[in-house]
Design goal:
By secondary structure, the chain is α/β, with parallel strands linked by helices. The protein contains 7 helices and 12 strands. The longest helix is centred in the last third of the chain and has 13 residues. It starts with a strand and ends with a helix.
């Protein structure tokens, strides 16, 4: 397997955008293309952007997608539930189980509703780009009890099936790991999750 490069770009609204590239082919994926798009394009110079993907449809996570697409020609992707709710368009409407190739790597799409109806996580090798499904020490924003239950079910049925050593890259704040969150995140303790 080739070498994976991950660059974090800090955007407006404290959103983390990630540029994930295959070092050999220079093919790359942009995850959560917020604003300003110029920051993303600076960091993506020299790469072939194959996909521009959003973990969910909130403005901070998709605001720069059209500008990045206009310059790079990458294919945009978003889950259809968030496209409908937030009136967003995409070249490809993602579903659970989709696999997208770039270089020697695959992006595996996991539908993890809760934070939004169309929240998804992207798993590439032993790295998971989790948007606001899990943050280091918490989860994304306060939400109604039904959405919280849905989010916890998504985490339990999708993310907790990944190896504990999986690195987690959230939409806000620092990176973490599944193992660390299982041990330290109060949301797991309150739900009775076990490592």
């Amino acid at each position: 397997m080739g070498k994976l490069s991950i660059v974090k770009v800090k955007l407006d609204r404290e959103v983390n955008c990630y540029i994930v590239s295959d070092a050999a082919s220079k093919e790359a994926v942009v995850i959560d293309p917020g604003q300003p798009a110029e920051k993303i394009l600076e960091q993506a110079a020299g790469l072939t952007i194959k996909y521009i993907l959003a973990t969910h449809g909130h403005p901070g996570h998709v605001g720069g997608k059209d500008d990045v697409k206009a310059v790079t020609g990458g294919e945009t992707g978003l889950h259809s539930a968030d496209a409908k709710q937030f009136l967003r368009s995409a070249d490809r409407y993602l579903i659970d189980g989709d696999e997208l190739d770039f270089g020697e790597f695959k992006v595996h799409v996991l539908h993890t509703p809760g934070h939004t109806p169309g929240s998804v996580c992207f798993v590439i090798a032993n790295h998971a780009f989790v948007g606001d499904t899990i943050l280091a020490g918490g989860i994304g924003r306060q939400m109604p009890e039904t959405d919280l239950r849905r989010q916890m079910m998504s985490i339990g049925t999708k993310l907790l099936r990944l190896p504990p050593s999986t690195a987690l890259y959230p939409g806000h704040g620092p990176a973490t790991s599944l193992e660390r969150e299982l041990a330290q995140n109060p949301i797991f303790r309150s739900a009775g999750a076990r490592a």
